[in-house]
Amino acid sequence: MDSYDKLINDAKKETLEPKNGVRNVKKAITSSKWRMVLMTITVALLIVPTCYMMTFFYYAFGTKSTTLMDITSHTLYITEPNTTLEELEFDMDFSLFSMDLGFQQYKQIGGEVYPAKTYDLKFVLNDLVNKEIDSKLEKVYPKNPTQTNQWLVHPNNQMEFFSEREWRVLSGLPDETVVEAYLSLSKLYSVDEVEKAMNNVDVTWAAIYTGVEDDLISANGELVSPIGYPVQPDNTYWSPFRGSRSHEETFLDMLKGLVPYEPIAEEISPHKNLELPERINYIENNGFQTYGVVVTGPKNEIEALQGSDMIRAMKVGEVKLWNWNR
Predict the structure, then answer these.
(1) Distance (Å, rounded) from C-alpha 136 to C-alpha 318?
(2) CB 310 within 8 A of CB 171
(3) What are the C-alpha distances in Å from 275 to residues 130, 134, 205?
(4) Burial class (CB in 10 A: 0-12, 13-18, 19+), 67
(5) For a pLDDT cut of 90, what percent of the chain falls above it?
(6) Alpha-carbon gap, residue 291 to 152, rounded angstroms
(7) Can you name the residues that pair with 103 across neighbouring β-strands?
(8) Three-state SS for 320?
(9) 79 neighbors 207 (Cβ within 8 angstroms)
(10) Per-residue b/e over 87-121, b at no fewer than 16 CB within 10 Å?
(11) If DSSP codes are grouped into helix, strand and coil, which group holds residue 131?
(12) Higher pLDDT, 318 or 218
């Protein structure tokens, strides 16, 4: 090869090699991008099922889903007068780090049980982040009972509703109806005393005196809400009172069981500031007495209670057509 040809070849190499270098760099960048995309997809596909597994194990073995259901049901039994829940009505759905809990609440009106409210709760880990309630009731117990809107009033507390008007409303109802009535008592009684005095109706729920109901203010100055327990035997499978020999002791055990979860209970219930330790201490030292009860039965039987010295005031709750079998 003469010097001229060598010069030409050297020039060609100088011209082609940069293009090959650029091409190789572009190819390497493209390959790197695809590897990154594939790696991201792979990691995502691994993370999602892993997170679902972590969620499942958290609710199954950490904060158990049944624990949250127990907290929910126990809270509503002690804060929502004359209500029950059914186990088979509980619907649970799990998503990433969260659980949706839906269920139906019932009320006894006369001799039958009717749907009262539908609850849809969303927990993220252990925190209640959303609560939706659909009420089917014509009259709704106060969302946040206070000194001025109580339906069950302590004997020393001022009433903010006109009991005489409520008795007139009851009198005007057809005889072929059954009624739910909230009876405020003239003094503190045992639940047994109340049941014996009202044996022609069903006493379904009793508000228990815990030392703060005179003005509904705790020792810490917090506004608190009434609490109580179902009086009638409850054999529904989910009920904490199923097979209970003493509803009073079951009620006290429920209060103690809710103490570690009191913030969750206060979020679940529409009634805030339960102040459970203070109230548990009072019950343990002073026993169980009631200042108000919820009863249900024929309109005429409830109307006949108007002259009782035991009753200070009455407020009409739900009303249904005759279904009384006694």
Answers:
(1) 11
(2) no
(3) 23, 27, 20
(4) middle
(5) 52
(6) 8
(7) 119
(8) strand
(9) no
(10) eeebeeeeeeebbebebbbbbbbbbeeeebbebeb
(11) strand
(12) 318
Place of tokens 């069981």: 257
The model's pLDDT over 247-295, given as tens digits with 9 standing for 90+, comes to: 999 999 999 999 999 999 999 987 778 999 999 999 999 999 999 999 9
* Tokens linked to 174: 């057809």
- How far, in Å, CA of 179 to CA of 158, rounded? 25
Amino acid at 211: G
Burial (Cβ within 10 Å: 0-12, 13-18, ≥19) of residue 16: exposed
Q: Which residue pairs from 136-139 have beta carbons closer than 8 angstroms and sit at least 24 positions apart in sequence?
A: 137/107, 137/318, 138/318, 138/319, 139/316, 139/317, 139/318
For residue 258, give both structure tokens: 């809710």
pLDDT in tens, 188-223: 999 999 999 999 999 999 999 999 998 888 888 888
Query: pTM here?
Result: 0.82
Segment 114-153, tens digit of pLDDT: 999 999 999 988 888 999 999 999 887 776 666 667 889 9
Place of tokens 């103490």: 259
